[in-house]
Design goal:
This protein has helices at 29-40, 46-53, 57-69, 102-113, 139-148, and strands at residues 89-97, 118-123, 130-136, 156-163. It is of the alpha+beta class. Strand 2 (118-123) and strand 3 form a beta hairpin.
Length: 176
């Protein structure tokens, strides 16, 4: 297998299933066991994975390849320590735009996609238009990012910052 961490290192569009319009193929007990184990440790060798799910290595590898081809496993990623990488401040930002016209949304999305400090960007319903997850070194770094980068994105009307004091639960493991 690949790098450590959880399966599905890419951003999710929120739609259920492997691909929009693809026929749904239900997962059996063994497929679910494989997915659970790979979410916990994406670096498992095929031999170790096979032992854990009580299969021989060849059928186990065939199942993993099939899960990848069907889109259930989108990738493998390492989980990094934000603090050691000087990204210890985690901030959620609620963004309201000047309008909800398609060109305004697209311009904002292009701009935010280019910002490395933004880990996630979600179009939402409710009080704001977008919810961002941002990781920076500290409050001074966030203040600079807020005024020099976020506030300058196209279409931004207002920004509301929610600074994380403590992560009570932080997982990417999906129940399967």
């Amino acid at each position: 297998m690949s790098a450590t961490g959880t399966a599905g290192g890419e951003a999710s569009g929120g739609a259920a299933g492997p691909e929009a319009g693809a026929p749904f193929e239900p997962l059996d007990r063994l497929d679910r066991s494989i997915l659970r184990e790979l979410q916990r440790d994406g670096r498992l060798t095929n031999v170790e994975l096979a032992k854990r799910v009580r299969l021989s290595p060849s059928p186990c590898l065939r199942r993993v390849k099939a899960l990848e081809e069907r889109g259930y496993i989108r990738g493998y990623a390492a989980t990094l320590d934000r603090g050691l990488l000087r990204r210890g401040l985690h901030v959620f930002v609620m963004v309201s735009l000047t309008s909800q016209r398609q060109e305004t949304l697209e311009a904002f999305e292009r701009g935010v996609a280019a910002l490395d400090d933004v880990l996630e960007c979600h179009l939402i319903a409710g009080e704001a238009d977008y919810l961002l997850a941002v990781a920076v070194e500290d409050l001074n770094a966030y203040q600079r990012f807020f005024t020099e980068r976020l506030g300058e994105l196209p279409g931004v009307a207002s920004l509301k910052s929610l600074i994380t004091m403590k992560a009570v639960k932080n997982t990417s493991e999906l129940p399967v």
